[in-house]
Amino acid sequence: MTVPALLLRAGRLALTVGVAIVTTAAIAHAQLAPPPGPTAENIKKRGALACGVDTGVPGFAAQDNTGKWKGLDIDYCRAIAAAVLGDPDKVRYTPTTAAARFTVLQAGEIDVLIRDSTLTFTRSNQLGLDEVAVNFYAGQGFLVRKSIGVQKAAELQGATICMITGATLELNIADFARSTGAKIGSLLFEKPEEAIAAMEAGRCDGYSDDSGSLAGMRSTLKNPSEWIIMPELISKEPLGIHARSGDPRWQKILFWLDTALKTAEEFGITQANADELRKTSKNPFILRLLGAEGDTGKQLGLDSDWAFRAIKATGNYGEIYDRHFGPNALNLPRGLNNLYNNGGMHYTLPFR
Amino acid sequence: MTTKQKALAWQALAVIAAGAVVLWFAHNVVDNLAQRSITFGFGFLFTRAGFDIPFHLVAWDESFTYGHALYVAGVNTLFAAALIIILASALGLALALMRLSGNPLAVGTARVLIEVIRNTPQLTQIVFFYLAVLQVLPPMRQSIHVGASIFLNVRGLYVPAPSGTGWDWIVAGTIVIVMIAAVSWRRLGVQVPRLIVLPPVLLLGLVLAGFTAQWDPPALKGFNFVGGVRLPPELVALTLGITVYTSAFIAEIVRAAIMGVHRGQAEAARSLGLSAAQTMFVVILPQALRILIPPLTSQYLNIIKSTTLGAAIAYPEILQVYARTVLNQSGRAIEVMTLVLGVFLAINLLASAAMNAWNRHLTLQGR
Amino acid sequence: MRHPLVRALFGTKLNAAITLLMLAAFALVLPPLFRWAIGTAVWNAPNRAGCEAADTGACWAFIRARLALFFYGIYPVDQRWRVDAGLVVLVVIGTGALFARRHRGLWLLALAVLIPVIDGILLVGGIFGLELVPTGQWGGLMLNVVISFVALGGSIPLGIALAFGRRSKYPVIRYGSIAMIEFWRGVPLLAVLFMGLILLPLFLPNGVNIDNLVRALVVLTLFTSAYMAEIVRGGLQGVQSGQPEAALALGMHTAQVQLLVVLPQALRLSIPGFINIAVDLFKDTTLVSIVGLFDLMGVVNQSLKDTAWTGLAAEGYTFAALVFFFACLIISLGGSVLERHFAIAPGSTKH
C-alpha cells in the first residue's frame, strides 16, 4: 500500500473513531448529569458524592504529598458521604475556581458546593442556589507585616493590598473606602501564590482574604512569625454549604448533618467515644442523635445510623476545626466559630 | 441538475446547517437563562463600577462606569502590546545577529537561550520575571533615587508628572511636525542620513515642553509614593516576559530571512566599500524585511493575545479587569465574555490588516 | 591567534569585545546558579524545615516527595500502572512510527487509531474489569500529554478540512472557513478556555453536562486547528501546479487528485509547521489550570500550598520548566526525524 493511500485510509478511520468516541463520551456524560429530582438517590445510584471544593487553600481544602484532600470543607464532604453512603471515602472531589464554582453547581456537575464560599443575598436569589448552612464564620481581614504597626483597617489608608480576583474582596475594599473614606489600593492576582509572593517581596503592604483563608495563607509564608492577621474584619463572610435549588430533602440532609456535627460537640460526643455513648448514655438527645432511639434517619430518608457514621468518620465540629485550624495546625483562635455556649456563633437547632 | 445548481444547493445546505446550529445554541441559551432567571443586556455598562484600577493611563476612579473600565483596560492592553512589539523586535534582531555573528561563544549562547526560551511555557516565564523583578528592586524605604524627584523601588519607577497647560500642545505639535517632515522629505527624495536633523528637533520640542510644564514630583506619604508618574513592576515583568519569549521566535524568523537574502547582495555591498554594519542595516535588512513580514505578523498578533497572561501577575489588562472583576461583580458572563472576545478580535483583525498593508507597500516598492 | 577557535573568538576587536562580555556574564550568573542548584542543594529531607537545617541551596527533597503527584496527579495509586502501561504503548508505537524501516505508514496508522483506543480504555476504564477513573482524578504531566495528544490528533483532520475550505470555490464554504480560522486565531486562548468553562453549559440543553476535560479538549482542538489550517494552506500552496495537472491528465477525479496527490505532498511540506504547533500546544496545556484541571503546573502550584513544604516556588517552577523543556525537546527531535524521513528526494525542486 502506498503511503498516501494509507494516510487517506488512516484519516478516514481516525475520523470515524473520533466521531464515535466523542459521541459515546457525550452520551456517557449526558447520562452522568442528574435529572432534576432527588439528589440523594442519584448519589446512592452513582455510589459517590460529587463534592465541589476549593482548588487549594490550607485549612479548607488542600492536597497533601500523596494527593489526598484535607481540610474543614473536605471533612464536611466526608461526613456527608458517611451519612448518605456509609463510607466517607466515597467522595469525588471537584476543585472549582472562584469564578466557576456556582456555574458548576448550577449545571449539576456537583451535588453540593462546600468551598469557603460566602452565603449572600445575590447568590441565593440571582443564581438559583440554596444557602444551606454556615460551617465557618469569617470576615474579610488583612494579613500585614508586624513591623508596620497598624492596628485598624482605617489606618491602611493609602496602602496597597494584594489579593485575588473573582471574589468579592476588591468590592468590599471599595465599599469600605466609600463608607469610611479610607482608600486602600488593591492589586489583583489570578492565584494566591503570586499575590503572596508579591506581598513578601514588599510589592504590597498586606494580603487580604477571608479570615479563615488568611490563617492558611500565613502558614505558607517563609517567616510566618513576622506577619500578623489584624483582628478587625471589614466584612461579614459566613462561609458555608451551597446546594442547587429545587430539592428540599437534600437541603434538609445537608442542614441537619451540619447541625449533627455541632450538636455532637455540644454534648461531648467525639470520634473516640461515640460507640460507647451510644450504649451507655442516658441523655435522650445523645441517644436520638446516635440513632439508638427515635427515627431521625427515617425522616430524612436515611437509615438511623447516619449521624453516628458521620461523627465516627470525622469527629464533631470542634474536632474538625481543631484538626485543621487548631493549635497544632493553622493556630487560628476559634472566636466566632465557638459554640454559642463558649461565646461563639454556632447555635444549633435541637434534635427533637 | 447542472454543476452550478449543485454547487448552489450544497452551499444552501451548508448555510442551513450552520443556521440550525446557531439557532439551536440560541434556543438553549434563552431556555437556560429563563430557567436560571438570568437577564441579558448591556445596560450594566452604564452603571457605577466601584472598583479601583491600580494602573491606568487615562483618567479613572471608582465612580466611573463599567463601560469606561473597558476603555481604560483596553488602553492598558494596547500600551503593553505596543511596548512589547517594539522591544521584542529589537531583541529578536539582536539575538539573530548574535547567532549569525560567527563568534562561537555568542552563537552557542544565543542558540541555548533561544532553545530554552522557546521550549518552556510562557506563563512560567512571566511569573519568573515578575518574582525576579520584585527580588531585584529595593524595598520602598530604601529606594534608589535621583535627587528628590525620581525613585526606583519594588513598587515601581516614580518620575515627576508634568502638569499645567501648554506643554501637551507643544509635545503634540512637535511630534506632528517631525512626522510630516519625515514622510514628505522621503517622498521628495531626501536621503535617509539627512533625516538625522529630525531627532534633535523632536528633542528640542520636548525640552521646551519640559520648561513650560510644572512638575509634580512623587513624594513618600504614608505607605506609598504619591504624585508623579509610576511605571509599575507588573508592567515591567509582563513586558520582559513576553518580550524575551517572543524575541526567541522573532530571532529565528529574522535569521531565516537574512539567510534568504542572496549572498551576492552582501558581497556586492562590501566590495562597494560599505562597512559590515552598513551592509547589514542598509542592504541586507531592508530586503530581509520583505520575507519576514508575514511570519512577523503572526508573532505580533501573538503578543497582543499574550498580554492576557498579565492577569496572572496583577497587570490590569482587559481579561483581568473584565473577565474577572466585572464578570464577578455584575454576574453577566455572556455579555462580558462577548465583549472581551469582540475587542480582541477587532484589535487583531486591525493589526493584521495594517501589517498586510505594509507588506503590500513593501512588495510594490520592490518591483 | 593561530588556532581557528582563538581566531573566531578574538579575531577582530568586535569579536574580542563580544567574547569578553559573554565571559563576564557567565562568571556573574553561573557560579551562584550552580551553588544553588547543585552545590548546596538538599536532596533528602522530610519537610522544608529539614531542608533549611541542612543547607541554604535548592530544596529538591520537595520535588522528590511529590514526584509521583507531579506525574500522575491524584490518579488512584493502585491504578497508576495503567498510566505507565499507556505510556509504554505510546512510546513503543511512537518509536515505531519514527524509526521503523518498513511499513512506516502502518505505524502512523497505529499512532492515530490504536493509541486513542488502547490508552483511552486504559486511562478511563469502566470496561474489561478496569475500574472507572473519572477525569477529575487525572492530573500532572500525564494530563498535559493526554490533552496535547488528543488536541493535536483532532486538529489535524479539522485543520486540513479548514485549509481546503479556505481554497474552496464555493464562497459560503470559503468565507465560513476564513471566519472560523480568523476567529480562533484572533482570540486569546485564556479567554476562550474560560468561555468554554463558564458558558458552555448555557449553550447546551438543560441538564446536559460535559466533563471539564472534554471542554478543554474541544476548545484546544478548535484553537489548534485554526493554526493547523494555516500551516496546511502554506503546504498546499507549495505543491507545484504541475502535479495536480498531471494527475488530472491521468484521469483522476478532482477529489482524488486533491486527497491522493496534492494533500500528501502538502502535508510533507507542513511537517516543520506541525512540529512548531505541537510544541506550542504542549506548552499551552499549562493554561488549563485556569479551568480547574490540575496539569503539571497546577499540581506544582497546589503543592506550594502544602504547609510542610512552603515557600519553595523557585524549586517547583524550575522543575516544571525543566520537564517542559525536555518534553518539548523530545517533540522537536521526533519531528526532525519525521521531517528527514519524508523529505523530498534529493534532486527534486524544494520550495
Automatic annotation (TrEMBL), chain A:
InterPro entries for this protein: Bact_solute-bind_prot3 (IPR051455), Solute-binding_3/MltF_N (IPR001638)
SMART domains referenced in this protein's UniProt entry, alphabetically: PBPb
CDD domains noted in UniProt: PBP2_BztA
Residue stretches making up the Solute-binding protein family 3/N-terminal domain: 48-277
Ranges annotated as spanning the membrane: none
GO biological process, one term: amino acid transport
Signal peptide (residue range): 1-30
Keywords for the protein's UniProt record, in alphabetical order: Signal, Transport
Family: Belongs to the bacterial solute-binding protein 3 family.
Entry-linked PANTHER family: AMINO ACID ABC TRANSPORTER PERMEASE, AMINO-ACID ABC TRANSPORTER-BINDING PROTEIN YHDW-RELATED
Protein name: Amino acid ABC transporter substrate-binding protein
Automatic annotation (TrEMBL), chain B:
Transmembrane helix is among the record's keywords: yes
Any one biological process term the GO annotation gives: amino acid transport
CDD domains per the UniProt record, alphabetical: TM_PBP2 (cd06261)
One cellular component (GO) term of this entry: plasma membrane
Ranges annotated as spanning the membrane: 7-26, 38-58, 70-97, 166-183, 195-215, 235-260, 272-293, 336-358
Broad class of the protein's primary localization: membrane
The entry's keywords: Amino-acid transport, Membrane, Transmembrane, Transmembrane helix, Transport
Location of the protein in the cell: Cell membrane
Residue ranges of domain ABC transmembrane type-1 in the record: 74-351
PROSITE patterns: ABC_TM1
UniProt topology in membrane: Multi-pass membrane protein
The keyword Glycoprotein is annotated on this UniProt entry: no
Any one Pfam family match given in the protein's UniProt record, by short name: BPD_transp_1
PANTHER family: AMINO-ACID ABC TRANSPORTER PERMEASE PROTEIN YHDX-RELATED, MEMBRANE COMPONENT OF AMINO ACID ABC TRANSPORTER
Family in the record: Belongs to the binding-protein-dependent transport system permease family. HisMQ subfamily.
Protein name in UniProt: ABC transporter permease subunit
Species in which this protein is naturally found: Limobrevibacterium gyesilva
Automatic annotation (TrEMBL), chain C:
InterPro entries xref list: AA_ABC_transptr_permease_3TM, ArtM/GltK/GlnP/TcyL/YhdX-like, MetI-like, MetI-like_sf
GO cellular component: ATP-binding cassette (ABC) transporter complex
Transmembrane segments: 12-34, 81-99, 106-129, 141-165, 186-204, 316-338
Pfam families: BPD_transp_1 (PF00528)
PROSITE patterns: ABC_TM1 (PS50928)
Keywords for the protein's UniProt record, in alphabetical order: Cell membrane, Membrane, Transmembrane, Transmembrane helix, Transport
Gene Ontology terms describing biological process: amino acid transport
Domain ABC transmembrane type-1: 141-330
Subcellular location: Cell inner membrane; Cell membrane
Keyword Repeat among record annotations: no
Major localisation: membrane
Top-level taxon: Bacteria
GO MF: transmembrane transporter activity
Membrane topology: Multi-pass membrane protein
Keyword Transport: yes
Protein family according to the UniProt entry: Belongs to the binding-protein-dependent transport system permease family. HisMQ subfamily.
Record protein name field: Amino acid ABC transporter permease
